[in-house]
Each structure stands twice: as C-alpha cells, then as structure tokens.
Amino acid sequence: MAEPTRDSLADVLDEIALLLELKGENPFKIRAYRNGAEVVRSFDGDILQRARDGELKGIKGIGDALQEKLHELASTGHLEFHENLKAEFPEGLFELFDVQGLGPKKVKALYEELKIASLGALKRAAEAGKIATLAGFGKKSEEKILAALAQKERFAGRFLLAEVAPHAERILAELRAHPAVSRAEVAGSYRRAKETVHDLDFLVATRKPAELTAHFAALDGIEEVIAHGDTKASIRLENGLQCDLRAISNAEWPFALMYFSGSKEHNVSLRQRALKQDLTLNEYHLAPVDGATRDDPTGKIKDEAGIYRELGLAYVDPALRENRGEIEAAESGDLPVLLEQENLRGTFHNHTTESDGRSTLAEMAAAARGLGFAYLGISDHSKSSFQANGLDEERLAAQVAAIAALNEDFDGFRLFAGTEVDILKDGSLDFADDVLATLDYCVASVHASFSMPEKEMTKRIIRAMENPHVTMMGHLTGRLLLRREPYPVNHDKIIDCAAETNTIIELNCSSKRMDMDWRWWHRARDKGVRCSINPDAHHVDHLQALHFGVRVARKGWLRREDVLNTLPLDEVSRWLQTPKDRRA
Ligand code: DGT
Ligand code: CA
Ligand code: CA
Ligand code: ZN
After folding, report:
1. Measured in angstroms, how far is the CA atom of residue 250 from the centroid of ligand 1?
2. Ligand 1: lining residues by beta carbon, under 6 Å
3. pLDDT tens digits for 328-357?
4. pLDDT-based confidence at residue 45 (cuts at 50, 70, 90)
5. How far is CA 449 from the centre of its chain?
6. Are residues 244 and 364 in the same domain?
C-alpha cells in the first residue's frame, strides 16, 4: 500500500461506510464513518500526524472506535477491520458504485439476487433484460443502467481541469528547474483551459533533449513509463493521468508550442491562412512552400506572437484557440481584452455550515478577506433541499441577522445576505417574494425533478428568471462533469430571457460543474447578459476554484465589464439595490 495521506484515510472510512451499508448494518454506525471521512478531509491541521501519534482525542466527529482505526491506518498503512470487511465481497463489486444511480441498496440486490459483481456482468445482465425483472428495479432502471454504462465509457480517461492542475504545475516546475531547460510549458487542452483534459502535453526547449526525457521518466509519482526515447517520453501518473513530453530546440520553440497547444481546428485554420501567403506552418517552422520565391520568416520568429504577426494577425490567447471566430477577430482587431483574475472583487454563491457547507459564516468571511476580496455573497440552500439541510424562513431570517451583525465590524468588506433558492417543479420558488425581498440577492437553482423534456425545463427556468427578486441563475444545466449529463435546456431562449429580464447567469466554477458551458458565453455576452463567476464554495478552500473560473470565463470570451463580481463594493451594492428592471 502506498504511503497514507489525508485523502486515503478519508477514502478508507468512506469505503467502510459503503461496505457496512452493503451488509445492511446499523445506519448510525454507517453515518459515523461517513462523518468521520468528512472531518478528516476538512480538518484544519495535520490530521495525518495526529492520527499517527494517536492524538485524535477531542476532535468532534471522531469517536473512540474511529480514533483507533485512524491510528492503525496512519501508522501501518492498512486497517485489518477494513481488509476483513472487503474480503467478504468480490473486488469487482466496488466498480458498481461508480455507476450513476446505483447506491448500496441496489448494488446489494444485484449482488445477492443476480450474483452481479463487475461492470461487465452488470452490462450483460442489463442487455439480457434480467435486471428489469428484479424487485425494486423494472424496465426503466434497466435502461438507466445501460445509459449510465455507456456514459461511463464515454467519460473514461478524462480528468477535470482543477484535478490535473496541481500535477501539471508540479511537473512544469520540475522541468523548469532543470539546468538544461531554457523554456517549458504545458500545451494542449490544459493550456487552452478546457474544462476536462485527456492528457497533459509538456514541452521543453533544451540543448540536451535526451537528458530531459530521462529526467521526465524518473519523476516522482509515476505509475508507469509508457514510452521513453531521445526527444519524446510518455508517463502515466498514479491517478491514471498520461503526460507526454517533447523536447525541442530553442529555434523550434514558437512553432512547437503553437502546434501542440492546438486546438487542431485552430491550427488547421492557421495553416490554410499561411498557404495563401505561400508559407507552410508546422511544428518546426513557418517557411516558404516549395518553389515559392519569398523570404523565410522562420529565423526572425522568437515567440508565438511572431507567428501570428507574420500571418497578419493579433496574438490569440490560448484559451480562445478553438476556431470559433478568434482568427477572424485577430485579423480585424476585434479580439476581446479578456478578464483577469485580479479583476475579481468578490463573489456570490457560497455556502456555510448553516446548510451543507463545511466552513462557518465567520470562516468564509475571513477567507474572502484573506484573498483580498471586498465582498462575499452567502447563499445557503432553501428548505426544499432538505438533503442539504436547507434553511426555512426562520433560519434564513436568523442568518440575515447574523450577517448584519458581522457586517457591523467590517471595514471595506461586506457580506451580502442571499439564498440559493430552489426552483420548484413548476418554476415557482421555494421562498415567497416577501421573504426574498429581505435579502441582498438571490441565486435560483434547480436541485430536483431533473428529468423533464427540454421545453418544460426551459419554461420552468424562465419563470424563475422572470421573478423580480431572482438576481442570478445558478448552475444552469445541473451537469456534473464526467458524471452526470446536463438536463436539456434551450440555451438560446434562456439567454434571451436573461438579457430581457436583467438576470445574471452564473458561471459556476466548482471544478465539477463549469456551468453555464464556455461555448455559450460569447453569444450571451453579445446579447448583453452579465456573468457572475461563482465557486459554489462549501468550504473556505473552494474559493480557489475562482482561478479556474476565470480561465474558463476567458475561454468564453468574457471581459471585465461582462462580469458582475468585478465591480467594486460600492458599485455592486448600488447595483443590487436598483430594481431589476432598471439595472443595466
Ligand atoms: P485532450 O488531450 O484530448 O484533452 O486535447 P488536446 O488538444 O490536448 O489533444 P492532444 O493531447 O491529442 O494533442 C495536443 C495538441 O497537439 C492538439 O491540441 C493539437 C496538436 N495535434 C495533435 N494531433 C494533431 C493532428 O493530427 N493535427 C494537428 N494539426 N494538430 C495535432
Ligand atoms: Ca492533451
Ligand atoms: Ca497528448
Ligand atoms: Zn446548487
């Protein structure tokens, strides 16, 4: 077993909870393990060391039994109780939990009734119509299982942007630290800020390529060296992420960086443009085509901007390189001045321990101030989201008072009192208008009744946006990247309605959401829709997601003026106080 980490401790506790559920054990016992996992994940301090030293006494949510188990795990790397539990079930059974819609009860039934203990067996049984006949399943759930399996295959081998970022930055730093490296970059979809990436494409300029590929193949945290040559190498990290390295010369740098940054479609378009000037563009040069009588610009080009310049174009930010109008804009001088992270002054849509967050109101405020923000919007769940401990009118009023009290003591910083109100099935809201009127702002989101035809879902959302108290639309499509498809909505209609009603659409930049999708923002922005970049933070650490939110917003062509939370405190306060139909 690998060296224990905070996450591996928490994962084992979660797995124990699952196993106990499979065995049909006491729900309180199960909950204790699940809570314990959360406590370990969010503990403020070196929980690993404390577990190793057997010093967990007094930590809320970690009882005696858990203390002993965490100590054993942290000091020996394994836990007998866990291994014995696991041994009671076949290994493949655990894969079933990754299938959307299969919880412990269903997995248990599939295992006990049909002896299903692997994804393969699940698929065969579903295809043979055996699952439909099981008590508690039926034809519909069988179809859902097949759809979930197909989706799983589609998503396989991709990773979230925020999930790969620490690996990308760590490896990049190690490459840059090598004395023979003059320049290094992560190219590919990571550089373009795609919301998910398949692999990481590293590029180094060096006089000693073979030394670099060897260095790369010997990095820490590698599961497997897939290929290792003099100028190229590929490795797989322990989390399954593949990383490619190409080592090139300084002279080739601009061309290789552009080529391997992609997108392929952007590159194809540039190559066609080059050909019209009798030039061929590839990863090595921008040189005259055979037989052309013009000069060779390759030698004077030192960076990517030089390539664009030679082609008569302004420099195109990597985030925009998707062949979605950026080349035309680069030619006509219409590229946007993109949003920068420093432009953000605060953010909306954040949770606290009052609903399902893990940091308190005061902790969230302190974290936001620590990041230099001038304001933070608090929007805990509303009462219909009972699974998230949503607030009723009374608790909401108490929170509004608590926020007002904290605001008394702040200077140059303000908490805004809001809610993430559920949009009910018919498009009405979980709080009455007079309750919403007591708040500074309101995020409206769909959290239940996802399966609706596009037309009805669109109507439902539009009805919510038409409410004068709804400031912004939360995670528009409910998608969970690599896990749950978006529910269908008519983006065009929603964008038009947002423009008409002055309703903001959020860019929910929780790493697993990135919703509304970047592909729609350019159009929304041109129609005058404003964006709010929101981390949907459930913990102080989640405020970091804003970094990726900005990268994805840039990918959506957004400028500073398109984003509400770039406004300074006084302006944003005034804006929120202005009646919705009079907001600009
Ligand atoms: P990914 O890895 O699927 O998230 O997306 P990318 O864009 O990183 O794709 P990848 O890793 O296959 O290739 C990196 C870049 O290399 C890609 O963005 C453009 C360039 N490239 C790769 N294959 C081709 C190709 O066949 N033609 C052209 N023009 N460029 C290519
Ligand atoms: Ca890639
Ligand atoms: Ca690649
Ligand atoms: Zn939500």
Report:
1. 21
2. 188-189, 194, 197-199, 201, 259-260, 262-264, 267-268
3. 999 999 999 999 999 999 999 999 999 999
4. confident
5. 23
6. no
Neighbours of ion ligand 4 (CB under 5 A): 445
Question: How far, in Å, from the CA of 245 to the mean position of ligand 3?
Answer: 9
Q: Are residues 172 and 92 in the same domain?
A: no
Check residue 2 and give its pLDDT. 63
Same domain? 144 vs 49: yes
> For atom 8 of ligand 1, which residue has the closest CA?
188
pTM: 0.81
Residue 505 sits in a domain whose CATH number is 3.20.20.140
Domain assignment present for residue 1? The answer is no
Residue 488 counted as domain residue: yes
What are the pLDDT digits (tens) for 544-571?
Answer: 999 999 999 999 999 999 999 999 999 9
Per-residue pLDDT tens digits for 373-409: 999 999 999 999 988 999 999 999 999 999 999 999 9
Note the helical H segments in 79-160.
80-87, 104-114, 119-127, 139-155
CA distance 420 to 536: 10
Q: Name the residue at shortest CA distance from atom 1 of ligand 1.
A: 198
User: Pairing relation of β-strands 286-288 and 346-347?
Assistant: unpaired
Mutating to test ligand 1, I would choose from 189, 232, 242, 271 the residue with most ligand atoms within 8 A of its C-beta, which is: 189
Contacts of 553 (CB under 8 A, 6+ apart): 339, 507, 509, 518, 521, 531, 533, 563
Residue to substitute in 159, 201, 263 for testing ligand 1 pocket (most ligand atoms within 8 angstroms of CB): 201
What is the chain's alpha carbon radius of gyration, rounded to the nearest angstrom? Answer: 26
Residue pLDDT, tens place only, 220-242? 999 899 999 999 999 999 888 99
Q: Which domain holds residue 306?
A: 255-332
Q: What CATH number corresponds to the domain at position 168?
A: 3.30.460.10
Cα–Cα distance for residue pair 156/242, rounded to 1 Å: 13
Ligand nearest to the CA of 195: 1
**pLDDT reported for residue 240:** 87
